[in-house]
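thought: fold this chain, then report.
action: predict
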Amino acid sequence: MIQACFFAVLLFASPVFACTGIRLTAADGSTVNGRTLEFGVPVEVFSAVVPRKTLFKSSGLTYTSKYAAVGSYCFEDVILMDGMNEKGLVAASFYFPGFAEYADVKDSSRSLSPVEFPNWILTQFATVEEVKAALVSDASVVIAPIVSPRWGPTPPPFHYVVYDATGKSIVIEPVEGTLVVHDNELGVLTNSPSFDWHMTNLRNFINLSPYNVPPVNWGSVSLAPFGQGSGMVGLPGDFTPPSRFVRAAIFSMTALPAKNSDAAVGQAFHILNQFDIPMGAARQKNPSGVDYTQVTCVKDPQTLKYYYKTYDDPTVKYIDLRAFDLNAKTIKKSGVLNQSPAVDISSFLK
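observation:
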């Protein structure tokens, strides 16, 4: 407990938290979505299946799960911060430092902490349109600047992405105390600044293409590309959120459609590998913090399988929500990290 709290304080004391999210559409029209999860320090991440009719008592709103969900949570609070429910709806938190501004709440009965917000979405809604209606038309809840002790002494700054089984997506951002909802046509999200800024910034890279540049003649001199990939010269390759957003948009939009969602899951992992931050490549000098990709996960709304791999174990594993009793009386949970880093196959050789 003390160690986890220390890590959380250190985490939010410095901007060492980077995540990248994408969506892919297969040839049969099915969709999958996935994301990376980076922290500047080791953080305990666990998996859980939340059944229907589970009671959640937050520091404000009290609610009961309408839908069962599977996903990940941090530290010891069994509150899904990244997950998928039985209707194929996905919700996830992404760090949003310097831009998240939560509401000054007078009525705490409809307030949620930044940490709790994705769990509420996952357990209450079936589609993106339902989420939009609750936030825009009904104003059902607000995100309040509630401190979650394990996440440090100040409210953690988050914005959120939501997908449903059709592939439709929105981004939800707390800006100047108001929840701003953006339609996310590309299905991409990273971190700060705001989503609309990232979409505007994409216009700087419309020259990029998956197709190789043809040879050109400068007078009597013929110049040809050195090899494959010349259409992507100028693609930003660093780990900053704007650069990752550009790469995520281009890689997901130019990917050749996989046959179905099963194949698209593998394709999503391959694309997300391009955002894998090795330990040491992105770090702070003071206070110390080394950002690296601790978990990568992909969700398949068709099969309701939640796939993941970790920094210590690149073997892809999955949790099948359909394998559980969705009306169970208790939450089922287990650890995610600290898996075996390799498998010995020496005895398989003949």
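thought: worth noting. The chain has one domain: 2-206+239-348.
final: tokens above.
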